[in-house]
Amino acid sequence: MVCHVFSSFSSSLIRVLxxxxxxxxxxxxxxxxxxPASRSGGRRRRAAxxxxxxxxxxxxxxxASHSSMLPTDFDIQVLIERHEALxxxxxxxxxxxxxxxxxTASGGRERIATVDHLRRLCMxxxxxDEVDDAxxxxxxxxxxxxxxxxxxxxxxxxxxxxxxxxxADEVLGRFTDDNxxxxxxxxxxxxxxxxxxxxxxxxxxxxxxxCKAKEFSTRNLESAINxxxxxxxxxxxxxxxxxxxxxxxxxxxxxxxxxxxxxPIRCTAMEELALxxxxxxxxxxxxxxxxxxxxxxxxxxxxxIPVARDQxxxxxxxxxxxxxxxSLSRCRIELTKIVSFVYIVDDIFDLVGTREELSCxxxxxxxxxxxxxxxxxxxxxxxxxxxHTVTNDIADMVEREHGVNPINHLKKAWAMLFDGFMTExxxxxxxxxxxxxxxxxxxxxxxxxxxxxxxxLFMLGHxxxxxxxxxxDHIPPVISCPAKILRLWDDLxxxxxxxxxxxxxxxxxxxxxxxxxxxxxxxEEHVRRLIAxxxxxxxxxxxxxxxxxxxxxxxxxxxxxxxxLNAARMVGVMxxxxxxxxxxxxxxxxxxxxx
Length: 595
Description:
Layout: H1 2-7, H2 10-18, H3 60-65, H4 73-101, H5 106-120, H6 128-134, H7 137-146, H8 149-161, H9 168-172, H10 190-199, H11 208-224, H12 230-241, H13 249-260, H14 268-299, H15 301-304, H16 312-322, H17 329-352, H18 355-367, H19 378-402, H20 407-429, H21 436-446, H22 449-459, H23 468-473, H24 477-501, H25 507-514, H26 520-543, H27 558-574, H28 584-593
Pathway: Secondary metabolite biosynthesis; terpenoid biosynthesis
Subcellular location: Plastid, Chloroplast
Keywords: Chloroplast, Lyase, Magnesium, Metal-binding, Plant defense, Plastid, Signal, Transit peptide
């Protein structure tokens, strides 16, 4: 039961309260006169990752104020006990629904609707047996092919999420006219349109009916906002701005709860359990954040490399949102350390090292030999020692928990990342302009996504020892898709900055050079089509119950594919700049999930 999962963190939370709040030092400006970037003629390779965000790295005083928000040991215990009692109440409700399902046809629909609410509130894993029992394949098939628009689209989504083969054309064909267009009598079916909007983002490629579903539902929901009652209008607006499948479920859960609380018929136990769950997860994330901040300050790299990014909170946000569940707390903490090294190494290549030093640094990583770094600058030696220690610690942890030590595969993943950075350095120093496809292939590697996800795969206990070499050399789509989405989204936002600052290195700019007759808007539309294509391939990987054609020998645990989906979902949030170069949605995410 969930209380046992969270109880193990109670004492840790209290230790966090008693410990001093350690914060990373403020980052020095990259324009400092001491920056070694001047050694390469003052040019800077385009940063490979998220640029600094004031929205989530708000400064020393504001972060310090959050330490007072952690409750006492008594408060935590009361919250855990309340969570346990509410879990029992919801469990009883589900059992009552099961008994009613056995007596009436409408009981099955009620159970499916409850499963949907539990999933939208990110609580279905607490009731896995009841959820599995409610997900009756025959009932879902019946609803998908015989229910109304809401029933059919909800059944379609649940079946596709579960990996069942289900045809969008067959399910939606009943709601279209002879020309294949959705019938106009569905324009006022708001709940049906919302569900239709949900499934329209689950396209696995060449599903024209889902493209039409997106256009039809978006157009009619937009127009309906003007006459809907305020609570429903807000929910529709939020659903259009943050579609269910391509948005972080933890974030959507808060908005779904707010909507449920406005309905005339409510399930109080479920709502109160969701609130308790939100609070416990927030406390857990605060505890994790405190541990990571102490580790980062003790490491001292922020002081030794003052030109490097010092954004520990941002690094944690990536892992906090990608990897969910109290049982994976240690995983989030350790992988945040890996993410931090990706950023720091990127900045070392950007701002610190000469080409010769970076080549020696890369060679030392390939050898995985600390002595090979003796001739390097102090900051490179310190960085290598730190990432060497953390990576070996993770390998030892995996061996203790799963009986296999993956250090050789992790070393190879690090070497691949450094080789990718070195390739970009050679392009810049030689004045070489890669073609757009070559740039994108290398950009997948330098995004850091493959490195982080190789570590995650082993930490989840997945044994890829039989094909690990191929796994690292040929990145599977479940990893390459979010990496490409990240790279392309980043480039859409950075291309304008680079044009202003005289920097180079975005896919969009390279594509324009290869196609001189194109306007900038056409190139941007091409990039957006590429992102949509990567989403379709990621959907195929995540919604298939069997191995994909592109990686037929490898299947992945559900937690891994969920993390890949979450990483892709967060990209648009991390790069969703407004007209003033702010990140308002990300600010909302962090305030809601962490503070």
